[in-house]
Write a structure and sequence with these properties.
Layout lengths: L2 H6 L3 H13 L4 H7 L5 H5 L2 E2 L7 E2 L16 H35 L11 H11 L8 H16 L14 H10 L6 H11 L8 H31 L5 E2 L12 E2 H11 L3 E3 L4 H6 L5 E4 L9 H6 L3 E4 L10 E2 L7 H16 L17 E2 L3 H9 L7 H9 L4 E5 L11 H12 L2 E5 L1 H9 L13 H10 L4 E3 L6 H14 L11 E5 L5 H12 L3 E4 L9 H15 L3 E3 L3 H18 L16 H5 L2
Parallel strand pairs: 4-5, 6-7, 7-8, 10-11, 10-13, 11-12, 13-14, 14-15
Antiparallel strand pairs: 1-2, 3-9
Helix pairs in contact: 5-7, 5-9, 5-10, 5-21, 6-7, 6-10, 9-10, 10-20, 10-21, 17-18, 17-23
Length: 609
C-alpha cells in the first residue's frame, strides 16, 4: 500500500479501497478535507458568532482586534453559547431516536406496528416496576401501553425531573441538584438551550454551560436510556454472540456505523465498516442498495449512485437527500416497507457490472452484544449473575480498572488508529475496555474483540479473560447504548467496595476520533456523571479561558468528572491510566499484583502512526 493510503487509515481493507477510489477518480472524505485545509481558526476556537445578523462576529484571540461582538458578547459568552447549541443538537439527535423507539413500542402495544412484537417480556416487566406501573389484571399489551405513555411524557415533561434520574447513585443526584442541572424534560431542556442562546438572553458563560450540562444529562439519563431499554424490549436483549452471515437466501445484509452495531448484536449480521468506510463500501461496486435513515450519513454518497446501479434509498421523514430515491418507513407498515426495499436491491443486482466490482478479502471474527444483564452472567456465571467478580478483580489488583472507549471516525486523525492504539495500550495496562459505536467496529476489525486477544493484555486482565472465556474488549452496542456504560458503573457502585458514587470508581472514558455533535452531548453527560473523559479534538471553546477551565477543571469540583483533550491516543491512554491509579489510591486499594508486561508484538507499528 502507498504511504498516502496508510496515512489515511490503518485498516488494510480501507487502504485498498482508498487506492482503488483514487484510481477510479472517486472523491473521498479525505480529499474534501485536504481541499478545505486550513480550516477557519476562529471556528475551531469557538470565537465566531452567527446567532443573529448583526454578525457574523469574531473575536481576535490575540487581543489586537475586536474583543466582543456587535451586541457586546465576549469570547467567553460566544464560546459557551456555541458549545451549548452543539450540545442541544447532539442531545436532540439521540433523544429523538429514543422517541421513535418509544413510539414504536406504543404502536406495537396497540397492535398497529406490522412485524413488531414484544420480544423481551422480562425487561418490559422490570421497566413497569421501575416506572411504578401495576401488573395485576393487565395483559402484556396493556402493560406496554402504560410504560410507553409514561416514557413519552418524559420527552415533553415541563415540571419535576426525568423518571430515570433515580437510577443514578444518590450522591450524584445530590450533586446535580446542588448545581441546578437535574434534567427536567428532554424536549424542554433542548428548547431552553435554543432560547437561552438567542441574542440578548443568557450571557453568563458558566450559567450557559450549566444549561448545556442539564440538556446533555436529559439525553444520557433520558432519551438515550429509553432508546436502549425499549430496543431491548422490542428486539430482544443482546447476548454475546459471534458475528455470522445472516439474511435471506441469496441476499447479504450488512451494516455501516451504528445500524451495523444494532443488527450485529441482536442477529449476528456482519458489519461492513464504520463512518469513514461508507463511501469505500459503495466504491466496491458490489452494493446493490444502500438504505439510510438518519445520522452520520454523508451527502457525498449521492455521487456513487450516479456511477453504479446502486439503489440509494432514504427512509426517514426527517432526512432527504438530493437525487436519492425515497421510500418512507413507518412502523404500521414495517414488513411491507422491508419487502419493498429488498425487491429494490434485487432489481439493482440484475444491473450490476461484475467488471466494476472490487471487494477486499479481509474479514475478522468478533464477539458482540454485551449488556449490563449479560455482563452479570459472563463475569459471575449462570448461578451467581452479579458484578461481584468484577469488583473483586479490581480490588484484588488483577484488573486495574475499566474504560469506555467510544465515538466516531475523524479525517483529522488516521482512520481507526486512535481507537486501536488507545485500546491496545489500555488493555496492556490491565484495563478492561467496553466500547460502542464506530470505535467498537474499529477494534473489532483489529481483532481485539476475540477471546484470543487476551494475549495482548496485561497478565492480570489476561488471566481473568481466560478464566471466563471473554475478550479484553467488550462490544456493548451502538452510540445510543452509552447508557449501558453508565448503568454498568451504577451496578459497580451498588455491588460495593469501590466507593459510594460513580466518581469514586477507577474508571475513565474516551472518544479518540470524535467528530459529531452527538459526541459533545455524550462526553458532557459522561463527565457530569462523574467520569474523567478524554477527547482527541478539543471542543470548539479553546478561545475562552473561562469555558475551557470549567470543562477541564471546574466540572470535577461540581460532579467528580471532567474533560481532557489529547490528540495522541497513547498519551490519552496514559492520562486515563493515571486517573484510574489515582482513584485506586483514594480507595486504599493494594498495588497491582502484576507489573505491566512489555508491549506485545506489532504494537510498535500501531503506536508509531
Amino acid at each position: 500500500m502507498s504511504d498516502q493510503s496508510e496515512r489515511k487509515s490503518i485498516d488494510s481493507a480501507s487502504q485498498e479501497m482508498i487506492e482503488h477510489a483514487a484510481a477510479c477518480g472517486f472523491e473521498l472524505a479525505w480529499d474534501r478535507y485536504e481541499a478545505i485545509t486550513p480550516q477557519c481558526d476562529f471556528g475551531v476556537l469557538g470565537l465566531c458568532c452567527k446567532n443573529c445578523v448583526l454578525g457574523p462576529c469574531r473575536i481576535d484571540p490575540f487581543g489586537e482586534g475586536a474583543q466582543c461582538g456587535v451586541c457586546g458578547a465576549t469570547a467567553d459568552t460566544i464560546a459557551a453559547r456555541n458549545l451549548a447549541r452543539h450540545c442541544a443538537s447532539g442531545a436532540a439527535a439521540h433523544s429523538d431516536h429514543g422517541r421513535d423507539i418509544t413510539h414504536a413500542l406504543m404502536l406495537t402495544a396497540r397492535g398497529k406496528a406490522e412485524g413488531y412484537r414484544i420480544t423481551n417480556e422480562t425487561k418490559l416487566r422490570a421497566m413497569a416496576d421501575e416506572l411504578g406501573v401495576e401488573h395485576e389484571g393487565k395483559d402484556l399489551k396493556e402493560l406496554a401501553t402504560e410504560v410507553a405513555e409514561l416514557a413519552l411524557a418524559d420527552f415533553g415533561r415541563q415540571e419535576g425531573y426525568l423518571r430515570l434520574v433515580h437510577r443514578a447513585p444518590e450522591p450524584l443526584q445530590k450533586k446535580w441538584a446542588k448545581a441546578g442541572v437535574t434534567p427536567t424534560g428532554i424536549d424542554a431542556d433542548i428548547v431552553r438551550i435554543m432560547h437561552a442562546t438567542h441574542i440578548g438572553v443568557d450571557n453568563e458563560p458558566l450559567h450557559i454551560l450549566k444549561q448545556a450540562i442539564r440538556t446533555a444529562l436529559s439525553d444520557g439519563w433520558g432519551g438515550s436510556m429509553y432508546a436502549t431499554d425499549f430496543s431491548d424490549v422490542l428486539f430482544g436483549g443482546p447476548e454475546p454472540k459471534a458475528a455470522e452471515e445472516a439474511g435471506a437466501d441469496g441476499i447479504q445484509l450488512s451494516g455501516i456505523c451504528c445500524t451495523a452495531n444494532e443488527i450485529l448484536m441482536r442477529h449476528g449480521i456482519p458489519v461492513a465498516g464504520n463512518f469513514l468506510q461508507q463511501e469505500l463500501a459503495l466504491a466496491t461496486g458490489a452494493v446493490d442498495a444502500m438504505v439510510v435513515d438518519v445520522q452520520c450519513i454523508m451527502p457525498a454518497i449521492v455521487k456513487f449512485g450516479e456511477r453504479f446501479p446502486t439503489r440509494l434509498i432514504s427512509t426517514s421523514k426527517k432526512a432527504a437527500f438530493p437525487g436519492v430515491e425515497h421510500m418512507e418507513f413507518d412502523e404500521e407498515h414495517a414488513l411491507g416497507n422491508a419487502k419493498r426495499l429488498l425487491h429494490a436491491a434485487v432489481d439493482a443486482f440484475g444491473k450490476r457490472d461484475p467488471a466494476q466490482a472490487r471487494i477486499p478479502a479481509q474479514t475478522e471474527d468478533l464477539v458482540a452484544g454485551y449488556t449490563v444483564e449479560s455482563i452479570f452472567s459472563t463475569l459471575g456465571g449462570r448461578y451467581r449473575p452479579l458484578f461481584r467478580p468484577l469488583n473483586k478483580a479490581i480490588m484484588d489488583g488483577r484488573i486495574r480498572g475499566v474504560a469506555g472507549v467510544v465515538g466516531c471516525n475523524n479525517v483529522k486523525i488516521t482512520h481507526d488508529w486512535g481507537h486501536v492504539a488507545m485500546v491496545r495500550e489500555l488493555i496492556r495496562n490491565d484495563v478492561l475496555v467496553v466500547q460502542t459505536g464506530c470505535s467498537a467496529i474499529a477494534c473489532a476489525k483489529a481483532g481485539l474483540m476475540r477471546p484470543e486477544a487476551a494475549r495482548l493484555a496485561g497478565k492480570g486482565l489476561q488471566e481473568i479473560c481466560e478464566a471466563v472465556g471473554c475478550a479484553p474488549v467488550l462490544h456493548v452496542g451502538s452510540c445510543v447504548d452509552n447508557s449501558r456504560i453508565l448503568l454498568a458503573c451504577v451496578e459497580m457502585v451498588k455491588e460495593g467496595g469501590l466507593g459510594q458514587d460513580i466518581s469514586d470508581l477507577p474508571v475513565a472514558g474516551a472518544a479518540p476520533e470524535w467528530m459529531s455533535e452527538k459526541a459533545i452531548s455524550i462526553a458532557t453527560y459522561v463527565a457530569a456523571s462523574g467520569i474523567f473523559t478524554v477527547l482527541s479534538e478539543p471542543f470548539p471553546v479553546m478561545g475562552s479561558k473561562v469555558v475551557r477551565d470549567y470543562l477541564t477543571e471546574g466540572m470535577e469540583e461540581d460532579f467528580g468528572g471532567m474533560l481532557a483533550f489529547e490528540k495522541d491516543p497513547l498519551k490519552a491512554a496514559a492520562l486515563m491510566v493515571a486517573h484510574i491509579n489515582k482513584k485506586r489510591a483514594a480507595l486504599g486499594l493494594e498495588e497491582m499484583i502484576y507489573e505491566t508486561q512489555a508491549a506485545p508484538a506489532g504494537a510498535e507499528a500501531v503506536a508509531a502512526r
